[in-house]
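Following up on my earlier thread - several people asked me to post the actual chain instead of describing it. Fair enough. Here it is, all 88 residues.
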Amino acid sequence: MIWLPLILTALALAFMLAVAAHDVREILSYLEFFRRHLPPDLPRDVRALLWRQNIWVGFPIRTALGLMFWLALAFILACRLAKLVMAA
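Reply from S.P.:
Thanks for posting it. Predicted structure:
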């Protein structure tokens, strides 16, 4: 029967999207944390320099790579889900 693979694929896709949403939230909270800890009286050029250095040095690359991995898997699973739905 086609319904069991369809349900399992939809559940796996929902799990992958939940993990991706968590990774996005983690990246955004990191960026917000860094922005809040910059002193507000710094000149604009210095703030821009510190922001660029943070992106190159302190950015959570592992989280970003994990996010790309989960989104790639979610895309593949969404294609499989569409194929199962069209076959049903």
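Residues 39 and 48 are 12 Å apart (CA to CA). That should answer part of your original question.
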